[in-house]
Design a protein that fits this description.
Strand order of the largest sheet: 1-2
Distance between the termini: 33 Å
Strand content: 25-35%
Number of helices: 2
Shape: globular
Largest sheet: 2 strands, parallel
Structural class: alpha+beta
Radius of gyration: 17 Å
Number of strands: 4
């Protein structure tokens, strides 16, 4: 935020665990209570507390880890979420597609809903 950045979007679908505050300064002990707050929203709220004029927001979305296989249903869900991201959110990712035992990487970069993607 010190370099003029005003907008930031946190993307995560997990909750704050007790191990997070000691490693990640955006989280506090209170964020862990009652099963933990959603990470993306808690991180955005922390940025807003520190820098109220920022445009921080949290989006609950599963981000697949590199090298972890996805089922066909999960792949469809990820593409759906990527394609429905708000205009202006720049997304960069690599999708590893496995068909009949062969893997191929699909590099994708897009400004969601601002340009044709597929």
């Amino acid at each position: 935020m010190g370099w003029g950045v005003r907008g930031i979007t946190f993307v995560d679908d997990s909750r704050v665990a007790f191990s997070n505050p000691v490693r990640q300064s955006l989280f506090e002990y209170a964020d862990c209570l009652d099963g933990g707050k959603p990470k993306a929203e808690a991180a955005a709220a922390a940025v807003q507390r520190v820098f109220p004029s920022s445009a921080a927001r949290g989006v609950r979305m599963r981000v697949p880890m590199p090298g972890h296989p996805l089922s066909e249903a999960e792949t469809v869900q990820v593409w759906s979420l990527v394609l429905s991201a708000p205009c202006g959110v720049k997304l960069n990712f690599t999708l590893i597609v496995e068909q009949k035992g062969r893997q191929s990487a699909v590099e994708a970069s897009q400004a969601a809903n601002c340009a044709a993607f597929l």
